[in-house]
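Blinded run. Sample ID left blank on purpose so nobody reads anything into the name before looking at the predicted structure. Input follows.
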Amino acid sequence: MDPAAPNMTGGETAAAGQVVDLVARVVDVMAWLYDHWYVLALVVGAGWAAGQSVVRRLAAKASEERMALELVPNRHFDPRLEEIFRRGVQLARASTAMPWWVPRRAKAVQIRMRADGSSPLRYRIEGPAGGQRLLSIGPFGPDVTVTKGLPIVDRPREHTVRAEFILRGKPTAPLREVPLNPDPLQPLIDAVADLRGDLGDLAEIRLDIQRAPKWALKARRMQLMGAARRSERREAQRAARWLRQDASSIDDSLSWHLQELLSDNPRSGGAGRRLVMPPVPRRVEAAQALGKLADDDQLVRVQLLVMCASNIEGRAQARLAQLQAAFDVFGGRSRWAMRGWRLGPWRVGADHWPTRRGFERRWDLGHCQPPRANWVRLEELTGLLKPPTVHCRLPVLASDLPTFEFGDPALLLQGIYQGPDGRQRLVATYAEETLFEVGVGKAGGGKTERALAQAIGWAHAGGGLMFLDPHRDSWPRATKFLAHEPLMERIALIDLNGLGPAPRVSSWNPLGMQHGQAAHEVVESITDAYASALGWDDVTAPRAITILTSALAVLVAVNEAACRAGRPEAQSTIFHVRALLADAEFRRAALTAVAGRLDEETRSWWDVVYPTLPPDAFGVVLNPIARLSANPVTRAFLGQPVGVYDIRAAMDSRMIVWVCPGGSGPTDRLITALLARDLLRAVRSRRDTPEDKRVPFRPYFDELITLTGAAPETIAAMFEDFRKYRCQVHGMTQLLARLPAAVRLSLVQNASTLATTAGSVSAIAPITAEWGDNPTPERVATMARFEHYISMNVHGQRLGPVQLRGPHLDAVFAAQARPQHAPALEHAALKNAGALPLAELTTRSAHQIQRVADFLADQSPTGVVTPGQTKRYK
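Blinded prediction complete.
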């Protein structure tokens, strides 16, 4: 025993023995684990699997409480960069609005862009339930409607392809900065523009945004800095190697040795060697090495998943290729690329083992597990953080604009739309939403052809209409397409052109009271028509208006008496105004017969005011009536006591009435004014029918310039009032500026469909101005014939302007053409209108004055002297 050794007590010796024993046991355990390494591997694997199971359960539980918001922009949505950036900040903040125990993979906000045929690109945001309040009120303001999103349930498709996109290229380089005009979403929308919902086509893009933990960012930075330093050292070593090689080649060269021999201070061989200083590696700057990862501000991790499906083989794969090409627009030094490996013609990606199961789990649960390289700044995602803007060209889908189906009363034909894939289809609007239409364009541009196609389709669907055409060209154009047995019973032709050797004319008595009209409404209607056609008003022609009103009041009272007496054939007509004003005996008999039916003011006017009027005061009233009487056609049409034309009955019975006034002269304008004012009166008279019982009726007015020249205030009132009575007006004109101001303002204000063909820039400018000059007048002016730009109301929203091709009757309704039945149709249309030979009606009109006089004599207890006679009736 060494005497110098320290003395150890028994307790210290025991403790040292225990330490040695513990160390020995640890060594034994390590040796056992080394020999039985698989046990440790199994334990670690089991622990990892258990941990993953717990994480997945917690993440799945958190996913059950996700919220969804639908974002629908209006047609004027034009956000600024700052607004989009603020939206990105909101999304990043909302991704963490979850309890502390939620795993990282569930803490994300997802942007879903979906196309399934129901909309061009449905924009939806899903994320933690706690972020709903934060995201409901965004920086876009009223231009984007935010609503709570309902769950989306997809039916299975036969073919589905999946893809995950990762960032390739330089990891620190940003994506390309894409401008907001045109919209960055345009390539994606173009990629799904030809999607067909009827074939089961579906395309969906999901972009998950996640705020990454600090440790992950630090680890990524350390990795990038280490890689940058290693790269710099390799570059320095490569430079040093090339420098030494260059120095050795110089020392061994012939020129070098000659220089040494000729030098004044020759050196020995070894001493003459150059001293080479190797380059020192440059310092790696963090800002340059880390690029977009240098700063923490607004740095997020993203996950980009895409799925395409279809019931037709090959369409889903083609759609995915289109979307892949669309994402290339965002590529620069960094770009989006599909994750996977390519083995010759095969590609192993998200559709194959072992990644497919993980893809489907993330897709179904909304989990975000992005690749290591998917770090981006919010500025790089500007194009994806917002719905489509005003700078985006959206395709018109069948869900946006329905396809026209022949015979469907709910649809109204509008034109032919050619989709992005070149397919053409007849498109329509819903009849309930198409209240008023305005068509503008140059002569021969196709506006009347389009109106005819619409009217013919509406007629075959069982609808009632009135087509007012001053030039009559539309009737022969439409007859072969209307020549069907069911329609022949409903069509009436009012033709005042007097064509042919034996013309047949219908009849109408504007003063007729056989249908129980209100007397004051009839008087007001005719007076207003005269005043409108002749330019009368309370300032320029107050006396003429008063004379005509008083005369009509007496004649209408006479007609009421005739109808109540059961003698409607004894009714007076508009031509009896002359007899009432100029024939004292006829006037005395009329006033005596209806004395009890006139109000006190009217009787007083005839007793007190009329006798004081000079004879020349009546010329302004009688002159237009004389012109009507001089024309045999108008004389026959207006000179019958009981007319067949009854527009109110035609409305209620879904008749198809074709009215051709005969021209645009003064007499024709007066006829047009009478017809227009009677239409206004008849429509307003539907107040007596409950709203749900009113039968829809559509008047079509061709050549509005001609019609409004006769009755401007009447046409304007139609566009203002008819909606209440389920009567929808369609008007066509060459120049909107030629219409009276009242008509023009009412047309544009209330038009649910606004259409224009090509024309001069000045003529088109008022229409394009309503669209914000998009398209421009210059673009519309250069369209081909029969091309239209149309804006429409569909599902309560304004759609368009959309470029459509006007429907040509011979192409659209070729199957309905019956040219061999056209004569039978015209015969039936005249018969339904009660048309009789012109000579017969002219003779009957000439004797009507005597019939009225006979009726008045019968109503008088003492009799009356008839015009031109002295016979006294007892």
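Unblinding after everyone has recorded impressions. Residues 251 and 273 are 7 Å apart (CA to CA).
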